[in-house]
Design brief:
By secondary structure, chain A is α/β, with parallel strands linked by helices. Chain A is built from ten helices and 16 strands. The relative contact order of chain B is 0.14. Classes of the chains: A alpha/beta, B alpha+beta.
C-alpha cells in the first residue's frame, strides 16, 4: 500500500481586507507554519509524498518573499516529496509563478511541479496523473483529459485535479467542470485508484467510492468554509483505501447572528464572546439585530470594543445587522437633563423615530448619552 | 438679604455710629466725606468674610488709629428664612457673637458663630449677586456681569421652565467641544476630514491602478498564448511561400537561357547587317566618284566659254577710259586760265582803291597841319590877354563903387554957383573958367577950392569935414579901379570889356582846332600819318610800274570791280565743267579695272577646274584597279541575302521569350520573395513580442502585485469604513449641537425676557417711552435704543452707562428680591455723572425699585437723591 498526504488550496500570499496590521502578518505566518506542519505530519505518518492539488499560491503575482518562504517551508522536510499542481489561482500560463526566476532558483529537490498530464512515478508502482491548469479558463474537463487512454495495468494511479465538480457547481455550462461520473467509471474500471482534488476549501468526500476527495484548505480563509483546516492522510492500493482526516489549522472564522433586545441578550453575547478559545486567532463576524436603549447600546459598544482588542478580528456584518437604538424613558430619566437640554433630547427622540435624519438622530442620541455619562 | 441695622464702634475714624435701614425701600445715608458712609457696607462685608482673629490686610486697615481699641461691627439682617444679630470685634479682645432669632433660636460665639454665618450665607445668599449689586464709590462704572445664579434661577422661575443648571451648561460645553472635532465654527468640515476623504480617494486610485496592472499581466499572458499558437501558423505560411519562390525561380532560369539565345542571335544579326551596310557604302562611293569626274569636266567647259565671251568687253572699256582722261585734262587747263584772269582783275581793283585812300589820307594831313597853326595862335592870344571873366567882374564892381562914391561926394560937397554978371574969367583952383555974362557956372567943393578972380578976389572955399571924408573914400575907390585896370593892362572899363571878349574868342578857336586835330588824327600821330601816306603812294607807284600793259588798266575803281566780277563768273563755270569731266574719267577707269579683274578670276577658275578634273579621274582609276564595278555589285547582293536570313532567326527566338511572359514571371517571383520575407518578418516579430512579453511577465510576476492589490484593497476598505464612521460621528455631533443650540437659544430668549422687561420698565421712567435695551446670552447689556436709535453700550457717555448700570442692578434686585431673597442694592456716591434732570428721573426709578427691594444709597451730597420719593434719610453726624 502506498501512503501519502493529500492537501490543497494553501493560497499562500492571500490578503484579507478585514485583517488589520499585525493580524494579517500572523495570518500569513500561520499559513506558512501550516505548510511546515504538513511536512512534519507526512514525515511522522510515514507518507512518501505530499500531493498539493492546486492553488498553492493565491496568485501568479505573489511576491518573491512568499515564494521563498513557501519553498523554505517545504525544504524543512527534505525527505518528503511535495508534488505541486497548478490550479486556477496559479495556472501554468505564461505569467506562472512556477517558472519565475525566484521559484526556479530556490526550488528544493523535494518539490516537483506537476506541469503536464504525463504520469509521474511517485513511488515504485505508483503513478501520479496530474491535470494542471494551463490557463485561467480551460475549455475542457482537464481531469478527464489527463485520464484518457490509461489502462488497468496494475499501476496504482493517483489523479491530482483541481476545480469544481459537475455535480456541485451552480454553473452547469462551464466546460471545465470535472465529471464525477467519468471518474467513478475509471475508478470502477481500475485505471485510476484515487482522485485527489483541490478548489473547495472544505474537506469533502465526493460520491460513494471513498476515493474522490477534496482535502480542503489547511488553514481557513473565509467564513463560508464548512470544514476547513484539515489534510487527508491516504493509504491505498487497488483493493483498499484508508483515510485519515487530520486537523492542522489554527485559525478560525466564526460568523454569528444575535438578536439583542435587552440586558439579558447583551449578557449572553458577552458570555459567548468570553467563551471563545484562542481568541487571537479567531476572526469573528457578528450580525446584530434588535432594539436597544441608549444605555444598552453604550454597554454593547463597550463590550464589542473590549473583544475587538482580544480577537484577531471582530467585525459586524453590516448587511445583516439591523440594530435600532432608541432612547427609552429610563434613558431620559437617567440622563437627568432639564431645561433646554431636556427639550433638545425630546426633539432628537422624535427625529430618531422616522424621517431622513433618523439614523443621524440615533447617533446623536448615542453621543449625547456618552457625553452626559462622561459628565457624571 | 435684608439689612435692618448696622452699628460701628471704633471702626476707622468712627467712634460709634448706628444706622437703621428701611428693609423694603430706599435708605439714603447722607454725610460729609470721611464720616464713614462707605464703612457701613464695607464693615458688613468684612464681618461676613473674616474671622475675629483675622490679620488680613483689609481687617488691619480698619483699626482705629486714635485709640487703643478693637474695631467692632454689629449687624442685624435677614437672609432667607433666618433673622440674625451678628457682632464681631477684631484687633483687641476679638469676639464674635451670633444670635439667630428665627425660625429656630440659636446663640453662638467665636469660631462656631462665624462658621454658622458662613453656612447660612452659603445656603441663602448668592455672593455673586451680592457683589454685582454693590456699586462702590466711583469705581465700578462698568456694567456688571449678571450671569449670577440667583438671577438665572429667578429668571428660570419667571420663564416657568425647568431649571437648566450647571450640569446642562457643562453638557452643552462638551457638545460644542465634540462638534469642534469635526466642524469649523462656520460649519465647514474640518481639514482632517477632507484629508481623510482624499486619502480614501487615493487608496481607491491605488486599487484601480493595481487592478489595471494585473489586468495587463493577464492580457499579456493571453497574448503570449496567442503568439505561441501563431508561431506554428506563421512557419507554415513561410514554408508555402518558400516553395512557391523555388518553383518560380526554376521557371525564371529557363527563361534566362532563352533570353541569352536571343541576345546571341541579335549579335549575329547585327554583324551581317554591318557587312551589308559596308558593301552598300562602297557601292555608293564608287558611283560618287564617277559622278564627280563628269561634273569636273562639265565645269571646265563652262568656264572656257565664259572667258571667250568676256574678251571684247575689256577692249571697249580701255577705249572709254582713254577718252575720258583726255577730256578731264583739257577742262583742268581752262579752269587754270580763268583763275589767272580773275586774279588780275582783283589786283586792279585793289590798285584803284588804294589811289582813293591816298587822296583821303592827304586831305586829313593838311587839315591837321592847319588846325595846329590855329591852335598855337589861339594859345598865344590867351597867354597875352590878361582880362578874364573873373577880373572883368572885379573891374565892373570897382567901377560901380567909384560911381557910388562919386555920387556921395557930390551930394555932400558944397555947391558953388557962380553967376556971371558980366563976362568973367577966373580960375577955380587954378582952372581958368570963362563965363559969359548971364551964364552960370556951378561946381561943388568937396574939399576946398580957390576961386581966383584974378585980381578981383580970391575966394577960398573949404568944404566941411564930411565932405572931405567922402572925397577921400572916392579917391580910394578910384585908386582900386585903376589898380585893377593896370592888372588887366587896360585903361578903362570899356577896354577891359573888349579885352575879355577877345580872350573868349581865342578860347573858342583853340577848342575848334583841338577838335579838328583829334578827329583827323584819331589814334595816329602826324608822323605816322605821313608815313602811311608815303607807303601807300609807294605801293601805287610800284604796282603801276610792275603791271604788264596788257590788258589795259581799268580806268577807275568801279570799272575794276566790274572786271573782277566778270572774271569770277567765268571761273565758276569752268569749275563745274571740270568736275563733270573728272567723274566721267573716274567711272571709266573703274569700269576698266573691273573688267580686268573679271578676266583674271576667270583664268584662275579655269586653272582650278582643270586640276579637279585631273584628280577625279585619278581617284576613279585607282578604285577601279582595286575592285571592279561588277565585283562590287555582286558582293552587295550576297550581303543583303545574309541579312534577311539572320532577321528571321532572331524574330523566332524573340517570340519564344515573349511566350514565356517574363514580366508576369518577374512579378510573381518578386511577390513570392516578398511573401517569404514578410513571413520571416512576421515570425521574427512574433518571437520579439514573445521575448518582450515574457520578459515583462517575468519582471511583473515577481513584484507581488496580487499581494499589493490585496493590501491596497484592505487599506481602502479600512479607510472607507473609518471615513464612514467619522462622517456619521460628525453628522451626529452636528445634529446634537444644532438641536441643543436651537433649544438653548429659545430658552435664553424666554429667560432674558423678564430681565429685559424690568430694565426697560425702570429705564422708561428715566429715558422716556422709546427706551429699550439688548442683552446677550450672559445677561450683559449690549445696547441701548432711544428714539429709534440703537447704540452699543460702549458708544454711550459715561453718565448714560452709569445710569444703565444702576438701572440694571435695580432690575436684577427687583427680580430676585421678593420673599426676602436677593441682596440689597448699594449705591455709594453713584450718579455723579448725571445732570440734574436725569438725576431727578433716576430718583423716581430708584424709588420705583425700592418698592420691591432694599436699596441703600450713600451720598455726601445731600439733595442729590431728593427725588427719591419714599426714601428714609439718615444723616450721619460729622
Amino acid at each position: 500500500m502506498v501512503k501519502f498526504l493529500h492537501t490543497a488550496d494553501w493560497q499562500l500570499g492571500m490578503t484579507r481586507h478585514f485583517l488589520a496590521g499585525e493580524a494579517q502578518a500572523r495570518f500569513n505566518a500561520a499559513r506558512l507554519e501550516a505548510v511546515r506542519r504538513i511536512g512534519e505530519l507526512a514525515e511522522a505518518e510515514g507518507c512518501g509524498f505530499v500531493v498539493v492539488c492546486g492553488d498553492v499560491f493565491e496568485s501568479n503575482q505573489v511576491g518573491r518573499r512568499v515564494v521563498r518562504r513557501a519553498l523554505e517551508a517545504m525544504r524543512s522536510t527534505p525527505q518528503v516529496a511535495f508534488y505541486l499542481l497548478p490550479g486556477n489561482h496559479d495556472p501554468l500560463d505564461p505569467s506562472t509563478v512556477y517558472r519565475s526566476p525566484t521559484f526556479s532558483e530556490h526550488r528544493p529537490d523535494n518539490v516537483v511541479v506537476l506541469e503536464s498530464p504525463a504520469p509521474v512515478q511517485a513511488a515504485p508502482g505508483v503513478e501520479l496523473v496530474a491535470a494542471p491548469w494551463l490557463s485561467k479558463r480551460p475549455l475542457s474537463d482537464l481531469v478527464a483529459d489527463a485520464c484518457r487512454g490509461l489502462e488497468a495495468d496494475g499501476t496504482v494511479r493517483i489523479v491530482a485535479g483541481h476545480g469544481a465538480l459537475d455535480t456541485q457547481s451552480p454553473n452547469r455550462d462551464d466546460p471545465a467542470l470535472i465529471s464525477v461520473a467519468g471518474l467513478e467509471e475509471r475508478l470502477a474500471a481500475g485505471t485510476i485508484h484515487f482522485v485527489a482534488l483541490g478548489d473547495r476549501h472544505s474537506t469533502t468526500e465526493v460520491g460513494r467510492s471513498e476515493r474522490i476527495w477534496y482535502a480542503g484548505a489547511p488553514e481557513p480563509t473565509d467564513y463560508d468554509e464548512r470544514d476547513p483546516g484539515n489534510v487527508v492522510v491516504v493509504e491505498l492500493d487497488a483493493a483498499e483505501v484508508r483515510l485519515d482526516v487530520r486537523a492542522v489549522g489554527v485559525w478560525r472564522f466564526v460568523r454569528r447572528e444575535w438578536e439583542l433586545t435587552g440586558d439579558r441578550d447583551i449578557q449572553r453575547l458577552a458570555d459567548w464572546l468570553g467563551g471563545l478559545e484562542n481568541k487571537e486567532c479567531a476572526i469573528v463576524k457578528l450580525a446584530l439585530v434588535g432594539q436597544l436603549s441608549l444605555a444598552q447600546s453604550a454597554q454593547l459598544d463597550d463590550l464589542l470594543a473590549h473583544h475587538a482588542d482580544l480577537l484577531a478580528v471582530l467585525e459586524t456584518w453590516e448587511r445583516r445587522s439591523e440594530l435600532v437604538v432608541l432612547p427609552d424613558d429610563a434613558d431620559t430619566d437617567d440622563l437627568g437633563l432639564s431645561g433646554f437640554a431636556r427639550e433638545a433630547l425630546g426633539d432628537l427622540r422624535e427625529m430618531s423615530e422616522s424621517g431622513e435624519q433618523a439614523v443621524a438622530a440615533r447617533d446623536a442620541l448615542g453621543l449625547l448619552h456618552r457625553l452626559a455619562e462622561a459628565g457624571r | 438679604m435684608r439689612v435692618h441695622r448696622i452699628r460701628l464702634r471704633n471702626y476707622r475714624g468712627v467712634a460709634d455710629s448706628e444706622v437703621r435701614f428701611a428693609t423694603d425701600g430706599v435708605t439714603i445715608i447722607e454725610g460729609d466725606n470721611e464720616v464713614g458712609k462707605t464703612s457701613i457696607p464695607e464693615a458688613l462685608s468684612l464681618m461676613l468674610r473674616f474671622q475675629d482673629s483675622s490679620r488680613h490686610r483689609d481687617v488691619a486697615s480698619v483699626q482705629p488709629v486714635d485709640r487703643d481699641a478693637g474695631a467692632e461691627v454689629e449687624a442685624e439682617f435677614n437672609t432667607g428664612p433666618y433673622r440674625l444679630v451678628y457682632s464681631k470685634r477684631w484687633h483687641r479682645r476679638p469676639q464674635t457673637v451670633l444670635a439667630v432669632e428665627g425660625p429656630r433660636h440659636e446663640q453662638l460665639t467665636g469660631r462656631e458663630a462665624h462658621d454658622r454665618v458662613c453656612e447660612l450665607l452659603e445656603e441663602t445668599l448668592d455672593t455673586a449677586l451680592w457683589q454685582a449689586l454693590h456699586i462702590g464709590q466711583g469705581t465700578e462704572l462698568a456694567l456688571p456681569d449678571f450671569d449670577v445664579p440667583s438671577l438665572g434661577q429667578a429668571l428660570d422661575r419667571a420663564a416657568a421652565g425647568e431649571t437648566a443648571g450647571e450640569r446642562e451648561d457643562d453638557l452643552w460645553a462638551r457638545i460644542c467641544t465634540e462638534r469642534e472635532k469635526y466642524w469649523t465654527p462656520t460649519g465647514q468640515p474640518k481639514v482632517n476630514r477632507s484629508e481623510a476623504e482624499r486619502d480614501l480617494a487615493e487608496a481607491r486610485d491605488a486599487v484601480g491602478a493595481l487592478e489595471q496592472r494585473l489586468a495587463d499581466i493577464e492580457a499579456d499572458a493571453v497574448e503570449v498564448e496567442r503568439r505561441l499558437a501563431d508561431r506554428t501558423r506563421l512557419s507554415r505560411v513561410r514554408d508555402a511561400a518558400a516553395d512557391e519562390e523555388q518553383k518560380l525561380g526554376d521557371r525564371r532560369q529557363e527563361l534566362q537561357q532563352l533570353q541569352e539565345q536571343v541576345e546571341r542571335l541579335e549579335l549575329e544579326n547585327r554583324a551581317v547587317v554591318n557587312e551589308r551596310d559596308r558593301t552598300d557604302a562602297d557601292m555608293k562611293r564608287r558611283d560618287e566618284l564617277i559622278c564627280a569626274l563628269a561634273a569636273a569636266e562639265e565645269n571646265v567647259r563652262d568656264l572656257r566659254a565664259a572667258a571667250e565671251r568676256a574678251a571684247p568687253v575689256l577692249a571697249a572699256a580701255r577705249v572709254r577710259a582713254a577718252e575720258a582722261e583726255e577730256a578731264y585734262r583739257s577742262a583742268s587747263a581752262a579752269l587754270e586760265e580763268a583763275r589767272g584772269a580773275q586774279q588780275r582783275a582783283n589786283e586792279d581793283s585793289g590798285h584803284h582803291r588804294r589811289i582813293g585812300e591816298l587822296a583821303e589820307w592827304r586831305e586829313r594831313h593838311a587839315r591837321v597841319v592847319e588846325a595846329q597853326q590855329a591852335l598855337s595862335e589861339a594859345e598865344a592870344h590867351i597867354e597875352s590877354a590878361q582880362v578874364d571873366d573873373e577880373l572883368l567882374e572885379r573891374i565892373e564892381s570897382a567901377n560901380l563903387d567909384v560911381v557910388a562914391e562919386r555920387a556921395a561926394v557930390r551930394s555932400a560937397a558944397a555947391s558953388v554957383v557962380v553967376t556971371a554978371l558980366a563976362d568973367l574969367d577966373f580960375t577955380v583952383s587954378g582952372e581958368p573958367v570963362e563965363l559969359p555974362a548971364g551964364s552960370r557956372h556951378e561946381f561943388s567943393v568937396s574939399r576946398d577950392a580957390q576961386i581966383t578972380l584974378p585980381g578981383v578976389a580970391q575966394l577960398d572955399v573949404t568944404a566941411g569935414g564930411g565932405s572931405r571924408d567922402r572925397s577921400a573914400e572916392l579917391d580910394e575907390a578910384c585908386a582900386r579901379l585903376e589898380a585893377l585896370w593896370a592888372e588887366g593892362g587896360v585903361a578903362s572899363v570899356a577896354a577891359a570889356r573888349r579885352a575879355a571878349d577877345q580872350r573868349k574868342e581865342a578860347e573858342r578857336s583853340r577848342k575848334d582846332a583841338t577838335a579838328t586835330i583829334s578827329r583827323d588824327l584819331r589814334d595816329l600821330t602826324l608822323d605816322v600819318l605821313a608815313q602811311k601816306i608815303a607807303g601807300l603812294a609807294g605801293r601805287i607807284e610800284e604796282y603801276a610800274a610792275e603791271r604788264p600793259s596788257e590788258p589795259a588798266l581799268p580806268a577807275d575803281f568801279e570799272e575794276a570791280k566790274q572786271f573782277a566780277s566778270t572774271a569770277g563768273r567765268l571761273v565758276e563755270e569752268r569749275i563745274e565743267a571740270h568736275g563733270r569731266c573728272k567723274d566721267a574719267h573716274e567711272q571709266a577707269r573703274d569700269a576698266l579695272t573691273e573688267a580686268g579683274r573679271g578676266e583674271a578670276v576667270l583664268a584662275e577658275r579655269i586653272s582650278n577646274a582643270d586640276s579637279t578634273r585631273g584628280e577625279a579621274l585619278a581617284a576613279l582609276e585607282t578604285a577601279r584597279t582595286e575592285r571592279s564595278d561588277a565585283d562590287l555589285r555582286a558582293s552587295l547582293v550576297s550581303a543583303q541575302q545574309a541579312v534577311a536570313q539572320a532577321a528571321g532567326a532572331f524574330a523566332q527566338a524573340q517570340a519564344a521569350v515573349a511566350a514565356a511572359d517574363p514580366d508576369s514571371l518577374k512579378l510573381l517571383l518578386d511577390n513570392a520573395r516578398a511573401a517569404t520575407t514578410r513571413a520571416e518578418a512576421d515570425i521574427n516579430d512574433n518571437e520579439d513580442s514573445l521575448r518582450t512579453l515574457s520578459a515583462r511577465l517575468e519582471l511583473q510576476g515577481e513584484a507581488g502585485l496580487d499581494e499589493q492589490l490585496g493590501e491596497a484593497r484592505s487599506r481602502c476598505e479600512h479607510r472607507a469604513a473609518a471615513h464612514e464612521r467619522t462622517e456619521a460621528r460628525a453628522e451626529a455631533a452636528r445634529l446634537l449641537h444644532d438641536t441643543f443650540e436651537a433649544r438653548r437659544n429659545e430658552a435664553r430668549l424666554r429667560y432674558l425676557a423678564p430681565f429685559k422687561q424690568r430694565i426697560e420698565q425702570f429705564g422708561r421712567i428715566v429715558f422716556g417711552p422709546s427706551f429699550g435695551v439688548g442683552l446677550d446670552d450672559d445677561l450683559r447689556l449690549t445696547c441701548r435704543t432711544l428714539d429709534g436709535v440703537t447704540l452699543d453700550v460702549d458708544q454711550l457717555s459715561v453718565g448714560a452707562r452709569e445710569q444703565l448700570g444702576v438701572l440694571a442692578r435695580l432690575a436684577c434686585a427687583a427680580i430676585v428680591s421678593p420673599d426676602g431673597g436677593g441682596a440689597p442694592v448699594v449705591l455709594d456716591d453713584a450718579l455723579g455723572w448725571s445732570d440734574p434732570g436725569r438725576l431727578a428721573r433716576m430718583g423716581a426709578a430708584i424709588a420705583a425699585a425700592g418698592r420691591e427691594c432694599q436699596v441703600i444709597v450713600l451720598t455726601c451730597t445731600p439733595g442729590r437723591y431728593a427725588h427719591v420719593g419714599n426714601a428714609k434719610v439718615v444723616t450721619l453726624p460729622s
